[in-house]
Amino acid sequence: MEDLRLNDSDRSLIEKAIAGDERSFAKILEEHYRLIYSVVHGIVGPGGDTEDVVQDVFVKIFRALPDFRGEARLSTWIYRVARNEALNALEKRRPVLVPLDDCEELADSDEDPAAGHRRSVTRERLERLMGRLDEPQRVALDLRYMGEKSYEEIADIMGIPLGTVKTYIYRGKLSLKRMITAYEKGAGE
Questions:
Q1: With contact defined as beta carbons under 8 Å apart, do 143 and 157 qualify?
Q2: Which DSSP letter does residue 144 get?
Q3: What is the CATH number that goes with domain 1-94?
Q4: pLDDT in the model for residue 161
Q5: Phi and psi at residue 49, to the nearest 5°
Q6: Does residue 50 contact residue 58 with C-beta atoms inside 8 Å?
């Protein structure tokens, strides 16, 4: 782990985590949770088992961390682990039946039911439309808006040029706008 791409903090955390320090491993996961969640959600999409896959990514990172050679930034390596796990989950995906008692929409709340329903429908529609985007656009948008990453961080994480990140985000937003406009005119979904 002598690569200059690792800062001293990451190098120290990795070494401690490999040596069995649970706090260091927890800190690695904590620092990269948004990245992992964004990547997984961007690939698995709506109705997916995002949280389950995120947990699988945690396990995979724990097992593979001793093999991390530091040839890339830690965030780039974690991105690749998360992406691979999410793609594996897609291949294994089966329909899941949820008991009515577990449905969020049926939970008691003080919120106006109509407003809650509109928000739920809007979120589901956006997730379905996001699911229509190409994977790189979907992941870049998720990293930007859910993961709150800068364009530079996204480029580093995805291992692509900054201009490509900007293109993915621009084209993804443009495609979403077109799909929303088509939906509102009655031609969508």
A1: yes
A2: I
A3: 1.10.1740.10
A4: 94
A5: -95, 55
A6: no
Domain 113-189, classified CATH 1.10.10.10, yes or no: yes
Burial class (CB in 10 A: 0-12, 13-18, 19+), 189: exposed
Of 82, 70, 75, 60, the residue nearest 28 (C-alpha): 75
Residue where the block lists tokens 């989950």: 89
**pLDDT-above-90 percentage for the chain:** 30
User: How many Cα atoms within 13 Å fall on the side-chain side of residue 120?
Assistant: 13
Q: Look at residue 177 and give its three-state secondary structure.
A: helix
The 10 Å Cβ neighbour count of residue 92 is 8
For residues 75 and 78, what is the distance between their CA atoms, to the nearest angstrom?
5
Output the pTM of the full model: 0.59
Secondary structure class of 94 (helix, strand, coil) = coil
- Sequence spans of domains, the chain: 1-94, 113-189
The helices-and-strands tally (H runs, E runs) of the chain is 8, 0
